[in-house]
Amino acid sequence: MEFDLKTHSVREVNQALHDLPKDQETEVVVNGISGDHNIAVGMDQPAKITLNGHVGYFCAGMNKEAEIVINGNAGQGLAENMMSGKVHVKGNASQSAAATAHGGLLVVDGDAAARCGISMKGVNIVVKGSVGHMSAFMGQSGCLVVCGDAGEALGDSLYEAHLYVKGTVASLGADCIEKEMRPEHVEELSALLKEAGCDDDPHDFTRYGSARQLYTFKVDNASAY
Amino acid sequence: MTMEKPGLIESATFSRDVIHEIQRAAETGIYDIRGFGAKRKVPHFDDLLFLGASMSRYPLEGYREKCGTDVTLGTRFAKNPIKLDIPVTIAGMSFGALSANAKEALGRGANMVGTSTTTGDGGMTPEERKTSKTLVYQYLPSRYGMNPDDLRKADAIEVVLGQGAKPGGGGMLLGQKITDRVAQMRNLPKGIDQRSACRHPDWTGPDDLAIKILELREITDWKVPIYIKVGATRTYYDVKLAVKAGADVIVVDGMQGGTAATQDVFIEHVGIPTMAAIPQAVRALQEMDMHRKVQLIVSGGIRSGADVAKAMALGADAVAIGTAALVALGCNHPKWDEEYRKIGSAAGFYDDYHEGKCPAGISTQDTELASRLNPEEAGRRLANYLHVLTMEAQTLARACGKSHLHNLEPEDLVALNVEAAAMAGVPLAGTDWIPGRSGY
């Protein structure tokens, strides 16, 4: 199945995608993309979708089951609230990639901008480049793997998400600390790197997590809020 | 100024309540957190009166001549607008803040009278979907429990930017109420003090919001109406931006609107009264030729059919109730007075919803307390109350000669004082004077 956004509207493409059968894997290619927003949102089918061109906001938003490859860059809110499946952007991703996502895997071959993985709720994210400031802000669960560097305030107000950074971290956010890399973490990281097609050595990464000091309101923590 | 006995004068500035709060703050080092809404007296619908028909207007016969109450919401873009029998809806309140029995009771009561109920922070429970014929799904900054499957099950989507009790603030749910089920739904560790975000994580302004709304429409194939809910502050501008962003329905929640848990200083000192917000919202809609095309729901301190009728006369298409609905279920009922006193409160005063010790079984996750609320009986009480609100509003509308609640208009109202006249934009009673309006 093939579409061209020069002749089809986003609405027509999305409706066709939503009408795909749920019990079989369909391959779909969308060409002629030029920064269009909301492409392939709300998928609930095991389709393999290839998007050729740069996509706008919220591409692959709330994805379930589908595997979506973007041959270009992605705008704000890529794969926001993804539930399952896989989204792979071959270029860079703008801010709030995989925001609040509950599951699935997001792979960014380039860099991801600010707030990558904000309020993540179970998604796994592998960024082969660097991430911007406030990434994994209020991250609840899942893993954020950064093969490059992380910007300021990484993991601010973090809950139970696991953060792995290979390069430098400009600064850690409130209640985010460096943690010991135990064997189970190396195993977890190795599996994610492999799934994302990275050959980085997991032993070169540092793990960060929550100090769990802000989990309850305490007078002594007033300066941290 | 209260005098205990001659010569003992209580300070108006440092009243006993103020002294108590200073001493409580000094002892604990933490601000006061509570539920309910603003308790201070602000200009409200009580400051407005209807001008019943006489010589210059023709009244309708009570009980004989029809006065319509139905409302359709979401006519702008949605394929399936919501049709309600009465213009009183149930506002968003979460499972977590409320017990499952309370949520079920809200759904049952709403069903009985043909109106809608709304989810809250934390997502949609199967029970409330099953028991609510028309269910509005809130899309909140925290996205706790946000699930596209539930989104597709909803009859409408409400994008929440803020609420009247705390415009500019996120919610909180303290550890006492984070049970296993609540923790699982929100993907959080059990027992922590949960902080909800105050801003959406993936968009930052009205232009972004327009794209976000298109995303929600694409995901739901343009079937369901999309509401935007704002706390009443800069209402004129917020409503204009909400229309521009593509809302089907705009919900404006005044400062009297309730909450499950927020800082007292926030509840009492942020936002504007509901009555003041409605004319701002209506003016914004009228200037864009969108009044009655984008529907306006108003909430915050609606208690009686008179409040419903006055809000609609000022230009609302419908109202929403939260606190009053909980009271109808049994919140603050005198039969629990002894138990309220055991936890330092009293029937009629209880506002510590955040502690999860609600004797009435409403704002709690304690299974023993929650079991005190029978959802069927509580739902019936809510339905009774909604019927009364509707009949009261009809009574007033007929007296003004209106065959439908939507035919009420500002010209049917006068104000009892200058403040209310200025805020509501109606004349001071007995005069033609509307403060701030040229030509008056």
From TrEMBL, chain A:
Superkingdom of origin: Bacteria
SUPFAM superfamilies documented for this protein: Alpha subunit of glutamate synthase, C-terminal domain (SSF69336)
Stored CDD domains: GXGXG
Record-linked PANTHER family: TUNGSTEN FORMYLMETHANOFURAN DEHYDROGENASE, SUBUNIT C (FWDC), TUNGSTEN-CONTAINING FORMYLMETHANOFURAN DEHYDROGENASE 2 SUBUNIT C
This protein's name: Protein glxC
Naturally occurring in which organism (per UniProt): Thiomicrorhabdus heinhorstiae
UniProtKB/TrEMBL annotation, chain B:
Swiss-Prot/TrEMBL keywords: Oxidoreductase
Top-level taxon in the UniProt lineage: Bacteria
Domain Glutamate synthase, chain residue ranges per copy: 78-402
InterPro entries: Aldolase_TIM, GltB, GltB_archl_type, Glu_synthdom
Record's signal peptide: none
Pfam families in alphabetical order: Glu_synthase
Family: Belongs to the glutamate synthase family.
PANTHER family in the cross-refs: ARCHAEAL-TYPE GLUTAMATE SYNTHASE [NADPH] (PTHR43819:SF1)
Protein's UniProt name: FMN-binding glutamate synthase family protein
